[in-house]
Amino acid sequence: MLRFVVRRLLLLVPILLGLSILVFGWIHALPGSPAEALLGEHSTPEQVARVNHQYGLDKPLYVQYWRYLDTTVHGNFGTSIASARTITYELKQRFPATVELALAAMFFSIVVGLPLGFFAAKEYGSWFDNASLFASLIGISIPIFFLAIILKYIFSVRLGWLPSIGREDTLSEAEHPTNFYVLDGIITGNLGASWDAIRHLILPAIALGSIPLAIISRITRASVLDVQNEDYVRTARAKGLAPRTVDRRHVMRNALLPVTTIIGLQMGLLLSGAVLTETVFAIPGMGSWLKEAIFNRDYPVLQGGILFLAIVFVFVNLLVDITYALLNPRVRVS
Q1: In this predicted model, what pLDDT tens digit does every residue of 166-208 receive, in sequence order?
Q2: What is the CATH number of domain 93-286+305-327?
């Protein structure tokens, strides 16, 4: 297992190097420039040239890339052109919001999706099975932003049960030492602030978790249907084991193998793809930050933010591979 982890960590170097080249090339291929976005449409060529010189954008591309690579290797992602704040500072402010939202969405997906898929498989061909398949198809098909708007209208505008924007009440004076608002409330002993943060997470988590929920439900159903017909499951039942014991020890443990992989992949996608949800609910996370950077042609933000998300994505998948091996003793990692 240790050799496997070390090998994957070493593979991280060429992967991130290749990604940095692709991101750098894509960003500089975008029309416009940071100077034009910063100065506006009435800027003069002299002003644009001065800003380009200030940020080194008038240098050859290979020089700019080498400087970007050198600073990144030393742990410095650069400074935002638009806000003049360091990328590290922005990450500390933005990333916790995205992680909190992604974890809430994945929690909702797993808590609802696993039982839904399991009972649909146990009731194969019944009305419940058909209803779950129909619901999962709707969950995959409906656009996230459209579902988010519907949820806001019903539960915030019409019923007034839940807040519709932000991470906490606008009048809140809660302390945030880690910027994980739910955790901060627990650390500071302000449980009211934690509950307020949870209430702000419910609607965006449901909207963002709709697609992972549908996928987890369908994969769980298919996996349980496949596993429960295996010889070792029939043998366990023939020995007289209780149905719940067979389901828990033999069916679900083996059925969770492909589901674990899907959960890991979806978690990585949630961390990097929450742009629409954060925009609709005005959550100051990574998605909305990178969206603003694209409009502002903020090269350092795009380069540092995307590279950081790539590192997180790779490490999430590494944890998934380790979990996959631990769940099933038959899986051996050399």
Answers
A1: 888 877 777 888 888 888 888 888 888 889 889 999 999 998 8
A2: 1.10.3720.10
* Residue 89, helix vs strand vs coil: helix
- Listed by start position, the domains of the chain span 93-286+305-327
DSSP result, 97-162: HHHHHHHHHHHHHHHHHHHHHHHHHHTTTSHHHHHHHHHHHHHHHS-HHHHHHHHIIIIIIIS--S
Amino acid at 230: E
User: How far lies 181's CA from each of 78, 90, 91, 167, 281, in Å?
Assistant: 26, 16, 15, 8, 16
Closest CA to 207 of 134, 271, 281, 269: 281
Q: How far apart, in whole angstroms, are the C-alpha atoms of residue 117 and residue 248? A: 14
CA distances from 35 to 57, 59, 180 (A): 9, 14, 34
Q: What are phi and psi of 203, to 5 degrees?
A: -65, -50
Beta-carbon count within 10 A of 3 CB: 9
Residue 59's CB is within 10 A of a number of other CB atoms, namely: 14
**DSSP class of 296:** H
Write out pLDDT tens, residues 287-317. 878 888 887 777 788 888 888 888 887 777 7
> Could you tell me if 111 and 206 are in contact, meaning their C-beta atoms sit under 8 angstroms apart?
no
- Work out the percent of the chain whose per-residue pLDDT is above 70: 90
DSSP-derived secondary structure for 274-286: -HHHHHHTT--SH
Look up the pTM and report it: 0.79
